[in-house]
Amino acid sequence: MNFNLTLIGQMIAFVCFVVFCMKFVWPPLLAAMQEREKKIADGLAAADRANHDLELAKEKAVERLREAKNEAAGIVDSANKRASQIVEEAKAAATVEADRVKAAAQAEIEQETNRAREQLRGQVAALSLAGAEKVLGKAIDRQAHSELVDKLASEL
Amino acid sequence: MAGENQTVSEYIVHHLTNMTYGELPGGFERHDGSIISEGGAWVLARSGEEVAAMGFNAIHVDSMLWSVGLGILFCWFFRRMALKASTDVPTGWLNAVEVIVSFVDNTVRDTFHGHNKMIAPLALTIFVWVFLMNLMDLLPVDLIPYTLSLMGVEYHKIVASTDPNITMGMALGVFILMLYYSIKVKGFGFAKELSMTPFNHWLFIPVNLFMEVVGLLAKPFSLGLRLFGNMYAGEMIFILIAALFSAGLVWAIPAGLLQMAWAIFHILIITLQAFIFMVLTIVYLSMAHEDH
After folding, report:
1. Where are the domains of chain A?
2. Which of A75, B63, B146, B289 is the most buried (most CB within 10 A)?
C-alpha cells in the first residue's frame, strides 16, 4: 500500500464529477421524474373522478328508469280503469236505452191491443144486434136497446 | 500468463503493481543498470523497487485513467439521459437510469433528514462511479494487462478501486465535506460535541477529545479501506484462480468453474460495496448535519 499523488488526483476528479452531477445530471432527471409522477397522479385522480361520476350517472339513470316505469305503470293503470269505466257507462246507457225501447214497445202493444179490443167490442155489438134481429125477426130499435147493447159490449 | 518465465508469486506481484509514473531520486540505479542523473527524473517505473523509491511523488497512471475515464463515462451517459428525460413514457436506457436515480433518491430521503441539495447527486455519483470501477473486476484479469504488455506496457491494473489511493481519495473528499458541514451547521457546537461527549464534565475534556477525534478519523478510513479491502481481496482471488490455469490442463477445468462461480458471486459484491460506500457517505454527512 503506497500512497502517492494519485490520492490528490482522485480527490480532484471526485469533486469535478460530483459538481458536474449536481449541476447537469441530477436536477433535470429528478425534475422530469417528479413532473411525470405528478402527471400520473393527476391522471389517476381524474380517472377516479370520472369513475365516480360514471357511478353517479348510472345511479341517476337507474332512478330515472324506475320513475319512468312507475309513471308508465300508473298511466296504464288509469287507462285501464278509464276503459272499464267507459265500458260500464256504455253498458248502463245501453240498458237504460233498451228499457226505454222496451217500455215504448209495450205501451204501443197495449195501445194496439186496446184499440183492437175497442174495435172488436164495436163489431161484437153490431154482430150481436144483427144476430138478435135475425132471431126476433124484426128490427130492434137502436135507440131503445142501445143501453142494453152497450152494456153487453162492455161486458165483453 | 504465469509459468513460462515467471513464478506464480512473481505473476501475482506483477498483477498487483500499478503502472506508476513518478520521480526517481538522483543516483538511483534502474533495472537496466542506467543511473538517474543528479536532481532526479520523472519516469515510468519498470520494477517494484523503482515504485518504492518514488515514494509520494508518483502517480498511478492506470488507476487515474480508469477512474477518470469511467467517471467521464458516467457523466456523459447520465447527462445524455438527463437531456432525454421528459414527462413522456421513458424508453430504453432511460428506464435503467431512472430506476437508479429514484433508488438513490429514496435512500437519501430515508437516511438524510437535513436540507442539502448536494447529498443526492453526491450519492448518485459515488454509487455509479464506484460500481463502474468495481465492474472492471469482472473482466478477465489478464485480458487488458496482457494485451497492453504486448504493446510494451509493463504494469497495468484495470480495477481502480483495488488501489487504496483511489478509495481513500474519495473517502477523504467525503471527510472534508463532513468537516465542512459539521462546522457550517453546528459552528461552535462541533467543538463542544468533540470535547463534551460522551462525558459531560470539563474534567473529561482530554478523554472526550481523544475518543471523539479517533472516532471522527475512523470514518474516512472505514469508508475507504472497506471498499479497498473488499475489492483487493476479490481481485486477489481472481488472480489466484488465474494462476491455477498455469498448473496444467487438469487444473484448467476446476479453475474455469471457480472463476465463473467467483465472478457470479462478485456481481453481488461489487454492487453491494458501491451501495455501502454510498450509504455510509450519506450517514456520515447526515451525522455532520445533526445538531444535538
Report:
1. 48-155
2. B63
